[in-house]
UniProtKB/TrEMBL annotation:
The keyword Flavoprotein applies. Residues 171-360 form the FAD-binding domain. GO terms for molecular function: monooxygenase activity. Pathway: Cofactor biosynthesis; ubiquinone biosynthesis. This is FAD-dependent monooxygenase. The lineage of its organism: Bacteria, Pseudomonadati, Pseudomonadota, Betaproteobacteria, Burkholderiales. InterPro entries: FAD-bd, FAD/NAD-bd_sf, UbiH/COQ6, UbiH/COQ6_monooxygenase. Belongs to the UbiH/COQ6 family. The keyword Flavoprotein applies. It comes from Massilia pinisoli. Its cofactor is FAD.
Length: 412
């Protein structure tokens, strides 16, 4: 960490003192701010200057469908409900996932199915747009007590004997007992703390876009492990609409991004037409491609610093749980802080050590599962193809194992 040990900051331009300073402007940062403030802690939320790239409303006033969506599980649902955000979502734009069909590769591809009825739940997950979620969080933050949002860019972290300080480019200083890094996969906070990472590029990009489907999707999410073309997921949106998340090899991604969405719909038809009929791009057309990588930090804490969300772990999106892991981080952090001894501050090293231990197993399991599945289904060897398709079919016939898997995925 770029630090300077100091017992006092009276000589410095301290713009705000709070219990917690959070660096980040995504859903995890905002949810952590709400949760900590509702637990009675003062919070400073440091966000970068806004960029003028918000989507414009389509003709007729209808808001375009966001291509960035999340499959939020029950852990996320419970947390967002507790901070009074779930009820503030535009529920007309939220789709429950009642079932999931996983398809293997090849002519005799395996199949694995999950459904909410078998999981004794009302829904397996909920598909929520990034903009819908963040608008609800922003509305809650406007009325939150003990939360102040500061716009600026951090340039240095100074760790003192009784606090941690974040210096901004304009010379101001934010002082807190605990600094929370919620600033994404390329976390500045993590880098300032000299926390090393294990990095593995998947040489894939996550291509996201939205389509109208000819046949009703019945709130079923479909996923195809195709080997040569990567991993394709079509997630239900309200009405006869679906959201694409295609983890495509870089070469294929280059080709796809050079084509129209109509041509992409034709490509998808090879896999989706039987289930969903013809696909038609939603208007206005929008498509994005996001580089995919596994990022495993060597630690998720440092003196008076904790990491949450993608700053603490980035996994392959094939299971759709990157955001859910982040929400589980927030839950664990809130629980750990609430359970600390009366004499311990929220930035105490023993408190942060308990948070790190609480997250170790869950994060490691998800990293191993997603990375292992990506390697398994990326192997273009016929014996491996036969074994993995057999494994899918076998797992589909083991209800006890299926229930355990889906319970873990749901965050139960």
């Amino acid at each position: 960490m770029s630090t300077q040990t100091t017992s006092s900051a009276h000589h410095r331009n301290v713009a705000r003192r709070s219990d917690v300073c959070i660096v980040g402007n995504g859903a995890i940062a905002k949810t952590a701010a709400l949760g900590l403030s509702q637990a009675g802690h003062s919070v400073t939320l440091l966000v970068p200057p806004a960029r003028p790239d918000a989507p414009e409303a389509a003709a007729g006033g209808e808001k375009p469908w966001d291509v960035r969506v999340y499959a939020l599980n029950h852990t996320a649902h419970t947390l967002l409900s507790s901070v009074k955000v779930w009820g503030a979502l535009d529920m007309a734009r939220v789709a429950p996932v009642d079932a999931m069909d996983v398809h293997g590769d090849g002519a005799q591809g395996g199949h694995l199915g999950f459904d909410a009825f078998g999981a004794h739940a009302g829904a397996l997950a909920w598909i929520v747009e990034d903009s819908n979620l963040n608008q609800a969080l922003d509305a809650a933050l406007r009325f939150a007590q003990n939360v102040e949002t500061v716009t600026g860019r951090a340039c240095r972290i100074v760790n003192g004997s009784d606090n941690v300080e974040v210096e901004l480019e304009d010379g101001k200083v934010l002082a807190a007992q605990l600094l929370l890094g919620a600033d994404g996969r390329d976390s500045w906070v993590r880098g300032q703390c000299d926390i090393g990472i294990d990095y593995r590029s998947y040489h894939q990009r996550g291509i996201v876009a939205n389509f109208a489907c000819e046949k009703p999707h019945h709130n079923v999410a479909h996923q195809w492990f195709t080997c040569k073309d990567g991993i394709i997921a079509l997630l239900p949106l309200p009405g006869d609409k679906v959201s694409l998340v295609w983890s495509a090899p870089d070469t294929l991604a280059d080709t796809i991004m050079g084509e129209s969405l109509g041509e992409l719909a034709i490509r998808l038809g090879e896999y989706s037409e039987e289930k969903l009929g013809l696909l038609k791009p939603l208007q206005p057309e929008d498509v994005k491609a996001i580089p995919l990588a596994l990022v495993r930090p060597h630690a998720i804490t440092a003196p008076r610093v904790a990491l949450v969300g993608d700053a603490a772990h980035a996994v392959h999106p094939l299971a759709g749980h990157g955001m859910n892991l982040g929400f589980a981080d927030v839950v664990a952090l809130l629980d750990t802080i609430a359970a600390r001894d009366a004499h311990q501050g929220i930035g105490d090293e023993r408190v942060l050590a308990r948070y790190a231990r609480a997250r170790k197993e869950d994060v490691l399991l998800m990293q191993l599962a997603t990375d292992g599945l990506e390697r398994l289904f990326g192997a273009n060897l016929e014996p491996v193809r036969v074994v993995r398709n057999f494994g899918l079919n076998l797992l589909d016939k083991l209800p006890v194992v299926k229930r355990r898997l889906i319970a873990h995925a749901m965050g139960r």
